[in-house]
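TOPIC: backbone geometry
CONTENTS: sequence, structure tokens:
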Amino acid sequence: MALSPSEINDLRAAKSLLENPGLAAKLSNFVGSPLEAGLKKLPESLNAAINAVARKSVEKALDVALMTMDQDDREPPSNWWHKVAVGAVGATGGLFGMPALAIELPISTAIMLRSIADIARSEGEDLRHPDGRLQCIQVLALGGKSKGDDLAEAGYFAARTALAKAVSEAAEHLATKGMSQKGAPALVNLLARVAARFSIVVSEKVAVQAIPVVGAFGGAAINTLFIDHFQDMGRGHFIVRRLERLHGQEEVRQVYDAL
């Protein structure tokens, strides 16, 4: 069955969200200058620390996804309240600067994951099943257009395809064995893949927070942009997923490419 005009409009809105410039462009507008120079100034040791914190944050997000997500009715998601919560965490992090990243990022990511799940629920995703929950985790790897992420430059479906096998294997493991083996290769592989791509966006966030004058207000604003970006990614992704459940992946992909 072909997509209706209203469904095509939904898909057009999803594509606009998913293929628009990523967080770096939004942060550059916020600070009034490109981020590339700031990213180059980050020392190698800090990059390693960012990767470690990003992985820890994704691991915590997975715990949230598997333990506390409920299937509810399809009321609109509470995006605003999640933004307020993440902004408050960012303000605290802004006061203490870079040393607070290891504490602030896992909390922000967990709140962000709850917001993504809220969006997924509103688009009819079944969060009672492992695949639905892992789709929320996958959103953290959908960073949007970014000069630091060649795969994202290739587009939404390229990034999603690269993660498809890892998500499928992890969902199969969870469906059969649950969380009894958290160190299972399928879960470790998915976490590594998501964390590697999430860390690119986190580096962009850190490059702005490293500016001395950012402070608490700037930390709140940066975190608000951070969650707003991933809410957009989540909204776009789960609109596509909703339409795929109705019309099949191939049909939706063809219309998406044609828009």
